[in-house]
Structure formats: C-alpha cells, structure tokens
Design brief:
single chain; mainly alpha; Serine Threonine Protein Phosphatase 5, Tetratricopeptide repeat; two-stranded parallel ribbon; disordered N terminus
C-alpha cells in the first residue's frame, strides 16, 4: 500500500512543513462559547514553544533533504525542550492547527486548565514518526499515539497511523484510524486536505476486511474529491476484476 505512503508524504510536506492556519471563520467556532470568550482565550494562549519555530523549520528541511539521522538528533533535542516548557503540574497542553480546534477542546474540557502549544510540537512528533515509519513501523506507532495525545485533531496523524496499520496487516485498526481522520476532515476546514486520503484509506481497509460494497463506496466518494485519482480508480478496478472472475457481484 505504498500509494498511501506517497500521499501521506505529500500531506506531510504541505500541511506539516508549510505551517498551519492561525484562525478560521466564525462558523467554525464551537457552539456554546461566546465570541468574547473566544477572543480572550485566544489572546491568552498564543502558544507555548513559538521561540523554537526557526529550529523546527530547519528540521523540516533536513527531512526533505533525507538527512534523517541529523534530523532525528535535532528532533529529540527539541522535544526535550518542549517537555520542559510543558512541565507545570495540573495543566493540559494541547497543540492545534486552528483556533476553532482549540475552542472546541476548551468547550469540551471546561474543568481543565488548558494551555495551547505551538504547532511545532506536532511537526516534531510527526517528523519522528515519519522517519521511523520507513524502516521501523512498529516504533512509529507509539510516537503517533503520543502525537494524538497532544494533538487530538490531527487528521494527518490519523492517516499516517492508518497507513502503518495497513502496512502491518491490521486492517481493522487501519479502518478505525481512517474513520477518525475522515471525521476531522469533515468537521474542521483546517483538516479538509485529508478527506481524500482518508476515504482512499478506508477503501483499502474495507477491501482487506472483505467488505467490498463499503470499499467501493469509499473509493467513489474519494473520486468526488479528486476525480482522476489513480489510487481510487485502481481500487475500484481491483474489486471489479474480482467480481468478473467470480462471475457474480461480490458482497460484504
């Protein structure tokens, strides 16, 4: 399933190294939080770790240039610095890609003392998982799990985790991860870029589970996002060929 890896690489390059949105339209703001409260919360939570951004961008360039050993050393140093910045007891540290995500989290966790963490933490953990996934996919999974603790709205992390589970021949876990990614892509405009990837991942997970009708539905929906995507077309052709060989419609 190297097709998903290629697509995750594209998302990684665009969504992770090119920065994230600082804000979204008011319609994306969670219900139940007044506009005044939204402004106040955002002003007070510019993001822990912003001073590390320049070094994190350098890590991005290292990964793009395939200097993985050097990048991993710097990632570990930067993660240690982030951990020091997030060491205050009683606080919950959350890294998000948009104001809407942060407000949504605050609304759902009103009794917690929530602190916003700069997007660099997501970049670092995703970078580490991405590097490990090339040769040590089992070791990449705990890194993605940690990323999702700090960044529960990261559709990219769910897509990458779905890919890894597919690679490890665990289609049910892959399916669950892609479902999470799809849900986030439909809820937040900052995660919209993952919709096509999530749907194609669902298509192949359903195929691996023998749920061919659901697989075809996922592939067809992905073509509504990208009408000429060869991955989805190949997935549909594979199921069609199976049906033709058996001389009957393949059902769930």
């Amino acid at each position: 399933m190297t097709y998903i890896k290629g697509l995750c690489l594209l998302v990684f390059s665009v969504a992770v190294f090119c920065g994230v949105r600082a804000g979204e339209e008011a319609t994306d703001t969670a219900d139940g939080v007044s506009k005044r409260t939204v402004r106040q919360i955002l002003i007070e939570n510019a993001g822990v770790g912003t001073e590390l951004h320049e070094r994190i961008e350098q890590v991005g360039r290292m990964v793009s240039d395939n200097e993985t050993a050097r990048a991993m050393r710097e990632i570990d140093l930067l993660l240690a610095e982030y951990k020091k910045l997030m060491a205050e007891n009683g606080k919950v540290y959350i890294s998000v890609s948009s104001d809407a995500q942060f407000i949504d989290y605050v609304r759902k966790n009103r009794k917690k003392d929530v602190v916003r963490v700069a997007w660099g933490l997501q970049k670092l953990l995703f970078s580490k998982a991405f590097i490990l996934a090339e040769e040590k996919p089992q070791q990449a999974l705990p890194v993605l799990d940690e990323l999702l603790v700090y960044a529960p709205y990261s559709s990219d992390a769910y897509c990458e985790r779905g890919y890894l589970y597919s690679l490890l021949k665990q289609p049910q876990q892959a399916l669950d991860s892609y479902k999470n990614a799809l849900e986030l892509s439909e809820k937040f405009s900052s995660e919209k870029h993952s919709r096509g990837i999530a749907l194609r991942g669902l298509g192949y997970a359903y195929t691996a589970l023998g749920q061919y009708d659901k697989a075809k539905d996922a592939f067809k929906k992905s073509l509504e996002v990208d009408s000429n995507n060869q991955i989805a077309l190949d997935g549909l052709k594979y199921i069609s060929d199976m049906e033709s060989r058996k001389g009957e419609k393949v059902s769930q």
